[in-house]
Amino acid sequence: MRAASGETWRDYTRHAFVEGLSDGSLPNAAFLHYLRQDYVFLTHFSRAWALAVVKAETHDEMLVASSTVNGLIHEEMMLHVGVCAEAGISHDALAATPERPENLAYTRYVLEAGYSGDFLTLLAALAPCVMGYAEIGLRLKQAAHSDTYQQWIDTYAGDQYQSYCRDVGAMIDSAVTRRLGEGYDQLPIWQSLCKTFRTATELEVKFWDMGLTP
Ligand SMILES: Cc1ncc(CO)c(N)n1
């Protein structure tokens, strides 16, 4: 799916916002604005992963989907609450953040994939988020020339997040072959799943664009 998304994957994982996190040149106001939007994003994104629990077929799929829901709500969202609290933004203020249209477009796209699509369509819409941030986190950990955004980088490069990413990847692989068989990439449905993945990746690019325009 990543290979089929072409340039878009690079636009997402090498975005100017990401490079600003890496070298510390990202203005703090842009970072906090992004974090506030991302908190709202994660609220809806957790709901979309909860739909994956509902649409799963096996206990293994349910285990991975429910762990992801748990990680999003108990860990990733709490990181945002903590960083914002240090910057003087209360939990109430964070929850009251007005949602930007770019944010709304992305999360509702993913939720809609879950409401009207099957399990694989939902996973194709969810995958760029988890996979992309894990990839960005690892690269920045190796390349970062500044410690300004170290906590953010460490979160996504850390063992916990990387292990979520591996579990989700393995679960997607087995969910695809379970439903479509080994020759999955010869089927028309595969093209449609790749298109969903690519659209979600484009919406990640728009999310970073939004981050740069507080
Ligand atoms: C927009 C966006 N994509 C991916 C992640 C990773 O969970 C995130 N926190 N926010």
TrEMBL record:
Q: Does the keyword Hydrolase apply?
A: yes
Start and end of every Thiaminase-2/PQQC domain? 7-212
For this UniProt record, give its keywords in alphabetical order, as a comma-separated list. Hydrolase, Thiamine biosynthesis
| Enzyme Commission number, as recorded | 3.5.99.2
Q: Which reaction equation describes what this protein catalyses?
A: 4-amino-5-aminomethyl-2-methylpyrimidine + H2O = 4-amino-5-hydroxymethyl-2-methylpyrimidine + NH4(+); thiamine + H2O = 5-(2-hydroxyethyl)-4-methylthiazole + 4-amino-5-hydroxymethyl-2-methylpyrimidine + H(+)
Its pathway, per UniProt, is: Cofactor biosynthesis; thiamine diphosphate biosynthesis
> Which top EC class is named for this enzyme in its record?
hydrolase
Q: Is the keyword Hydrolase assigned to this protein?
A: yes
**Its family?**
Belongs to the TenA family.
Question: What is the annotated role of this protein in its UniProt record?
Answer: Catalyzes an amino-pyrimidine hydrolysis reaction at the C5' of the pyrimidine moiety of thiamine compounds, a reaction that is part of a thiamine salvage pathway.
Name of this protein: Aminopyrimidine aminohydrolase
